[in-house]
Amino acid sequence: MDKFAEELGKGISEAVGKVPWAMPTIAGIMIVAIVLFAIMTFWRLKKGSEVTIAGLVNIKPNEIVEQLKKDFDSLNEDDKQKTQLLRLMNHLTVEISNIICNTTNEEFFETRRSIYDYLLPGIGSTITKQKRNNHRVAIFVKDGDQLRIHQGIGYSTEGKKNLRLAMDSSAGYAFTTGELYSSGEVYSAGNRFKKHPKATKEYHSLICVPIKCGNHILGVLSVDGEEPNSFTKDDEDYLTYLTNSLYILLHFENFMEIMIESRKGGELDGVSNN
Fold first, then answer.
1. Which alpha helices (H) appear in 18-60, and where do they start and end?
2. Most buried residue among 15, 33, 34, 239 by CB atoms closer than 10 A?
3. Do residues 223 and 189 lie in contact, with contact meaning Cβ atoms separated by under 8 Å?
């Protein structure tokens, strides 16, 4: 069979060689065929039809376009998130500078409140990815051998006032170790999360970032999410950047509270501070 094919090919080559116009004609026909095949393939791809080339390569344009669209949307959302974060961090930095440089004792606590009123909702909106997801954001500080809410959103009035977390809680772990805690499913086996006995809200994701400078820890930034896997590694980094600025604010708060209490004590003792 192989010998027959070889002889046949040889015969065709010899016959073609005897006709001067045969080779250019055959080459022209092949070029036209290739062009027509390319045009038909492009037309089918444009319609979104599945195309198989030589029985080896299978192209599914609808799937490719859909994946490219998803990738683009994801990149677009990441860019939006980064822009929102930069604006949030810039606003926080400017406000902290203003409160340190320009605020009198009487104005301090009112100005501080406005900073938190802008910052905490901003954190929740910046890291929200699922439309139906809700976040509570809180800054916990030490209160004896427990943690209490210093500032927070998404909590009830009673919760803000009375909620206390033990040091073996997730926030307590971040406070005592200085390490970030993050879980996409707090109820998974082996998780250190412990549900508060008086908790009325269910959430599956939790991230707790220590507010620290070196080994000095002033508090914990806690953000939870109703949906599983609410946070990414980027979110962990973003929140860590924010806590660097929050440390300055908390540190200055502590300083101002000491100064104000000292001034009140001097007035009560009959000592003038003017």
1. 22-47
2. 239
3. no
CA distance 51 to 59: 5
Hey, how many other C-beta atoms are within 10 angstroms of the C-beta on 140?
26
How does pLDDT run across 78-97, given as a tens digit for each residue? Answer: 666 677 777 777 777 777 77
pLDDT category, 188, cuts 50, 70, 90?
A: confident
Amino acid at 48: G
Fold exhibited by the domain 82-268: Beta-Lactamase (3.30.450)
Is residue 135 within 8 Å of 124, Cβ to Cβ?
yes
Question: Which carries the bigger pLDDT value, residue 177 or residue 59?
Answer: 177
What tokens does 26 get? 């055959």
Task: Compute CA 61 distance to the chain's CA centroid, rounded to the nearest angstrom.
Answer: 30
Cβ atoms of residues 223 and 238 within 8 Å: no
- How far apart (Å, rounded) are the C-alpha atoms in residues 262 and 266? 6
Q: What is the pLDDT of residues 117-175, one digit of tens each?
A: 888 888 887 776 666 788 899 999 999 999 999 999 999 888 889 999 999 999 999 99
Token duo for residue 8: 């046949």
* Digit-coded pLDDT (tens) for 250-273: 988 888 888 777 777 655 454 444
Distance (Å, whole) CA 182 – CA 143 = 23
Sequence-separated (6 or more) residues with CB below 8 Å from residue 241:
85, 89
d(CA 127, CA 193) in angstroms, rounded, equals 21
Q: What is the DSSP string of 214-236?
A: TTEEEEEEEEEESSTT---HHHH
Residues of the chain with CATH 3.30.450.40: 82-268
The confidence band for 103, taking pLDDT boundaries of 50, 70 and 90, is low
